[in-house]
């Protein structure tokens, strides 16, 4: 007869709304160097392969679209690697947060992909629309609308019965608080 009791797995508490919000802003700041590095590599590769000037990318709509797709793929890769390795990006480590699947388990690949896509629907339109508005004032109302849409996941969290962000509700994931002891283990 085995006298050892089964281990009790405790589900960490959901991180607070403000903590998730500040971590999100910090994540944006940390994404800037990632995006800039990818942009430099893209521009260098383009120049080496074609011999064209740097301005050739901005002069061609197809090359701009390809550039945008490369940047989105890089951001996708960054989040997938971080979330799958330990459930934390650098910003999440700083704010002692972790992305978990349902019941405190590691989030599955499909859940991570769904979470990224749901997030992208809210966050991705903002930057291109502001760039368009910078060049053409007719896009300004759309840029402001995208900024309002940017807040949708956080407004959803206020209304959600469990306080989950919109992308977490859709993907079946949670952002939880991690104690200092758990984080270092």
UniProtKB/TrEMBL annotation:
It comes from the Bacteria. Its main location: membrane. Residues 14-172 form the RDD domain. InterPro entries: Pra-immunoreactive, RDD. The chain crosses the membrane at residues 24-45, 65-83, 112-133, 139-159. It is a multi-pass membrane protein. Keywords: Cell membrane, Membrane, Transmembrane, Transmembrane helix. It holds the Pfam family RDD. It is found in: Cell membrane. This is RDD family protein. It comes from Jeongeupia naejangsanensis.
């Amino acid at each position: 007869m085995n006298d050892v009791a089964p281990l009790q797995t405790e589900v960490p508490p959901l991180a607070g709304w403000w903590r998730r919000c500040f971590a999100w802003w910090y994540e944006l700041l940390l994404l800037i160097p990632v995006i800039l590095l990818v942009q430099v590599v893209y521009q260098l590769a383009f120049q080496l392969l074609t011999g064209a000037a740097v301005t050739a990318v901005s002069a061609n709509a197809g090359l701009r679209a390809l550039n945008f797709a490369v940047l989105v793929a890089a951001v996708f890769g960054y989040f997938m690697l971080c979330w799958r390795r330990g459930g934390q990006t650098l910003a999440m480590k700083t704010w002692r947060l972790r992305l978990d699947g349902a019941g405190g388990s590691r989030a599955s690949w499909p859940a991570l992909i769904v979470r990224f896509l749901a997030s992208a629907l809210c966050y991705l339109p903002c930057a291109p629309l502001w760039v368009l508005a910078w060049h053409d004032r007719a896009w300004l109302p759309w840029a402001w609308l995208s900024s309002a849409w940017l807040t949708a996941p956080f407004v959803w969290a206020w209304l959600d019965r469990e306080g989950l962000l919109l992308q977490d509700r859709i993907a079946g994931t949670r952002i939880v608080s991690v104690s200092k002891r758990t984080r270092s283990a």
